[in-house]
């Protein structure tokens, strides 16, 4: 029997989107927003939501390369430390080395990029598992940042420096523009380009990807470097937002990022995931954090609720996947 | 009938978009070897996965020795005496032979109040089981990953029999074996039949069925076409039952204009399995590479393809020496490689037919690195058409395809890359007669019309003899023989392949 492929009708397509992981997540987000809005009237206001957009930009930017990396079956735990390192290098090269601020910014971001490149190099060339390598550099880069900063913080930047972190463009926080554009560009890159296809192939079967002639090592090196670059940019934005540099900046942010990526439906085992999912994950976590705090929950209780939502979303995801596999 | 051990009636099984079995029926007597044959995707594996509890039928009855049986999972079937060796081998390479055999039901002992594995009893039990199968040359402490395919299969059989099996199911057990391993397997099967075990045997090699089986059942498009006594039927009749039409030539070979040397190896060296290999393949030529499993044919192919870069020696493509240290460099030089292990090396099984067929040619279906879906789609449709791949469409993930159809996707993926040199490692493994002829025709045509140089590794001597312009023989990592198409005979090539092993066997015999 050469069964004729049935063309999907519009209803099929609609169902496909509604019951997709992103669809379910979006639904959870809507419900959360409505529930939170009934608890406090400070939550669902334009000002508050835009403010949250400001706060989530750093996590959002780092979550993009993290999605790429997790799709290949890897992980990058050192992003928070890279962010701190980039911030410190920025402040130090401006204040101590006397670089012009523009150059100091570039130096900071480059130091992050270099840190990511080092991760990638060891993972690809020496074959250190990503978890081990980035766990080691999580400590290493943080130590480096502390060594450079000597527990001093750099402050007193000129006014223009705060535009990115505290300013607005057309009524929207400046950094949110950057996030939106970056998400759009790298979402399309993942979904439509050779790079994206290669990442999925590597995550599903690295041997098969190599045997197909894909330049696996080059792609891996690229995405770990990209991760360092984004962490560097996030470091710059962070300094610009809070007006000062300290060596503990970004500590623990890797967990927020990974939580958002996994919440967004990217499998920690690699092979699946999307930037759209990750974006919803980032937004959902930020809204929960903010809404619950505004409703008067303690920060401990907030973490418990977020953890529960994460588990719930993963259960629903698994249910959908197994239904799809069997039906 | 009291000697009916297994009876399946009115079996239906649906997968999304495909009805894999339609009102199929199948009966097995006690102590017979019953072959199950059919084209790729006919439903053979699905049928036996229902017997062994992997799938549950949508409807239908299964009786074991007259009793209605329902197996919710493979374990229940196993406990009911049904043992299965699946199409894709399933051992743990890091564990020992004994551990693999007793996986899930290791003998236990109580010591200091703790229940622990009784290693001694496990090892001696494994040795006993192997001895029952007349296997005396296998170390039960050896890691399975270090064994060759033939030995791994013997371990699978011992494992299957470690729980008293009444029915042993083998899904294409010989697809990866050479002749001598096949002979050993057959003697084990005959031994088991004598002991009253029923064997369900799936294979695309019809000669094996005439060698081994008592009865044969043919499936086509999920329906049972009929059951025959092997003694009362012929190859031609079985083929007609399988495909519903006649197939003209089994190995269509088209003579080609042999051109300039396309691929040349000079003293290519990477021990232990590639030693000082020098050979050449000309444009339009099909060179067959024969040898036992483990003789280093696949390893040499992987040295050329850059998976295992050479320690020394030269690779020369169209007269120019090239450096190949990874597969991407080989692909860039116009070399394609259809690998031996389709599940791990050939396919990304979780991805669709479309994504797999374009995997090696992403560059050519892209503009400014953006993949052109429409172009990919038409490439995949062409492949499905050309090799009659049985699928619900280009968007089907390849792990949902039958084994033979997966193999066709791998072949079409490398044909799509339009290589100058194509290395094919067991290209027709697990492929049915019709599609096999189709692939052979394609190979011949590409060689003749486009001057493609093909290096074909195969464990099936008839395939090598019929398709090759020249035949090379490997043994223990070295090239040990070369035959022109005219001088090659089955005996001569087999002798070149095996003489060392034969000598060893002769000296080892008491
Ligand atoms: N898990 C699955 N999901 C969807 N379709 C499936 C699945 N397993 C098998 N099929 C489909 O059912 C049909 C029968 O497949 P089956 O594996 O039984 O074929 P087969 O006779 O064993 O073929 P081969 O000789 O190639 O191994 C095929 O069309 C296949 O694509
Ligand atoms: Mg099969």
Structure description:
With 327 residues, chain A is mainly alpha-helical. Chain A is built from 14 helices and four strands. In chain A, helix 3 (46-71) runs parallel beside helix 8 (174-192), helix 8 packs across helix 9 (194-204) and helix 12 (253-263) packs across helix 13 (275-294). Helices cover 34% and strands 27% of the residues of chain B. The longest helix of chain B is centred in the last third of the chain and has 19 residues, at 490-508. Chain B is globular, with a radius of gyration of 24 Å. Chain B starts with a strand and ends with a helix. Classes of the chains: A mainly alpha (327), B alpha/beta (510). At the A-B interface, helix 9 and helix 10 of A face strand 2, helix 10, helix 11 and strand 20 of B. Residues 15, 18, 20, 38, 40-46, 87, 390, 400-405, 432 of chain B line the site of adenosine-5'-triphosphate (ATP).
Span between N and C termini of chain B?
47 Å
**Number of helical stretches of at least 4 residues of chain B:** 17
Termini separation of chain A: 20 Å
Radius of gyration of chain B, in Å, reads: 24 Å
Describe the main β-sheet of chain A briefly: 2 strands, antiparallel
In round numbers, the mean pLDDT of chain B is 87
- The dominant shape of chain A is globular
Q: What is the CATH C-level name of the largest domain in chain B?
A: Alpha Beta
Give the % helix of chain A: over 70%
Q: What's the oligomerization state?
A: heterodimer
Number of helices of chain A: 14
Poorly predicted runs of 5 or more residues of chain B = none
What's the mean pLDDT score of chain A?
Answer: 89
What structural category do the secondary elements of chain A indicate? mainly alpha
Classify the fold: give the CATH topology of chain A.
ABC transporter involved in vitamin B12 uptake, BtuC
Order of helices and strands of chain A: HHHHHHEHEEHHHHEHHH
Strand content of chain B: 25-35%
């Amino acid at each position: 029997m050469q069964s004729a492929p049935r063309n999907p009708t519009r209803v099929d397509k609609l169902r496909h989107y509604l019951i997709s992981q992103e669809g379910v997540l979006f639904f959870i987000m809507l419900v959360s927003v409505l529930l939170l809005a009934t608890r406090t009237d400070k939550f669902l206001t334009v000002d508050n939501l835009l403010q949250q957009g400001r706060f989530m930009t750093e996590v959002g930017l780092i979550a993009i390369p993290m999605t790429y990396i997790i799709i290949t079956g890897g992980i990058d735990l050192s992003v928070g430390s890279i962010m701190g390192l980039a911030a410190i290098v920025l402040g130090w090269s401006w204040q101590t080395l006397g670089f012009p601020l523009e150059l100091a910014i570039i130096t900071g971001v480059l130091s992050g990029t270099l840190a990511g490149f080092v991760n990638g190099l060891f993972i690809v060339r020496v074959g250190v598992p990503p978890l081990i390598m980035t766990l080691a550099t999580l400590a290493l880069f943080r130590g480096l940042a502390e060594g450079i900063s000597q527990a001093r913080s750099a402050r007193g930047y000129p006014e223009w420096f705060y535009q990115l972190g505290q300013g607005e463009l057309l009524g929207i926080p400046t950094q949110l523009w950057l996030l939106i554009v970056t998400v759009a560009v790298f979402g399309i890159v993942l979904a439509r380009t050779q790079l994206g296809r290669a990442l999925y192939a590597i995550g599903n079967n690295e041997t098969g990807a190599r045997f197909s002639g894909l330049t696996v090592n080059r792609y891996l090196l690229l995405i770990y470097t990209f991760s360092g670059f984004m962490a560097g940019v996030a470091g710059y934005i962070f300094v610009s937002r809070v007006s000062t540099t300290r060596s503990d900046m970004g500590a623990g942010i890797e967990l927020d990022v990974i939580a958002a990526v996994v919440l967004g439906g990217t499998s920690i085992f690699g092979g699946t995931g999307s930037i759209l999912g990750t974006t919803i994950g980032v937004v959902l976590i930020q809204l929960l954090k903010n809404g619950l705090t505004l409703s008067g929950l303690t920060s401990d209780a907030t973490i418990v609720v977020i953890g529960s939502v994460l588990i719930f979303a993963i259960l629903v995801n698994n249910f959908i996947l197994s239904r799809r596999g069997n039906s | 009938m009291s000697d009916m051990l297994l009876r399946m009636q009115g079996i239906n099984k649906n997968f999304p978009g495909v009805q894999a079995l339609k009102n199929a029926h199948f009966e097995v007597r006690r102590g017979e070897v019953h072959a199950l044959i059919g084209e790729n995707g006919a439903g053979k594996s699905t049928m036996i996965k229902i017997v062994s509890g992997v799938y549950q039928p949508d409807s239908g009855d299964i009786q074991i020795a007259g009793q209605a049986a329902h197996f919710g999972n493979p374990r229940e079937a196993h406990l009911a005496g049904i043992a299965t060796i699946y199409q894709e081998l399933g051992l743990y390479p890091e564990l020992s032979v004994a551990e693999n055999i007793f996986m899930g039901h290791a003998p236990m002992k109580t010591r200091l109040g703790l229940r622990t594995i009784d290693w001694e009893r496990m090892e001696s039990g494994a040795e006993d089981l192997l001895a029952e199968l007349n296997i005396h040359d296998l170390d039960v402490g050896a890691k399975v990953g270090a064994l060759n395919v033939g030995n791994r299969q013997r371990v699978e059989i011992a494992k299957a029999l470690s729980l008293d099996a009444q029915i042993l199911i083998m899904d294409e057990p010989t697809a990866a074996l050479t002749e001598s391993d096949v002979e050993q397997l057959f003697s084990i099967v005959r031994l088991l039949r004598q002991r009253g075990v029923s064997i369900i045997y799936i294979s695309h090699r019809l000669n094996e069925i005439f060698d081994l089986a008592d009865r044969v059942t043919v499936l086509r498009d999920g329906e049972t076409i009929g059951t025959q006594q092997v003694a009362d039927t012929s190859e031609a009749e079985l083929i007609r039952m399988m495909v519903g039409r006649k197939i003209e030539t089994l190995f269509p070979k088209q003579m080609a204009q042999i051109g300039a040397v396309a691929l040349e190896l000079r003293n290519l060296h990477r021990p232990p399995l590639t030693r000082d290999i020098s050979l050449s393949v000309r444009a339009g030529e099909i060179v067959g590479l024969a040898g036992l499993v483990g003789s280093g044919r696949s390893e040499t192919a992987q040295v050329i393809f850059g998976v295992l870069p050479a320690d020394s020696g030269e690779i020369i493509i169209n007269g120019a020496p090239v450096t190949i240290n990874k597969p991407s460099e080989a692909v860039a030089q116009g070399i394609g490689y259809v690998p031996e292990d389709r599940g791990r090396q050939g396919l990304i099984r979780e991805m669709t037919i479309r994504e797999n067929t374009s995997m090696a040619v992403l560059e050519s279906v892209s503009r400014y690195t953006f993949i052109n879906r429409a172009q990919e789609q038409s490439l995949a449709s062409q492949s499905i058409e050309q090799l009659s791949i049985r699928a619900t469409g280009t968007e089907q993930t390849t792990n949902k395809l039958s084994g033979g159809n997966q193999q066709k996707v791998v072949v079409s993926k490398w044909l799509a890359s339009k290589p100058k040199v194509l290395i094919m490692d067991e290209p027709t493994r697990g492929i049915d007669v019709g599609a096999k002829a189709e692939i052979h025709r394609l190979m011949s045509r590409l060689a003749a019309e486009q001057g493609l140089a093909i290096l074909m590794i195969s464990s099936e001597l008839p395939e090598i003899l019929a398709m090759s312009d020249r035949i090379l023989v490997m043994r223990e990592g070295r090239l040990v023989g070369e035959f022109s198409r005219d001088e090659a005979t089955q005996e001569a090539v087999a002798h070149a392949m095996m003489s060392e092993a034969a000598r060893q066997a002769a000296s080892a015999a008491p």
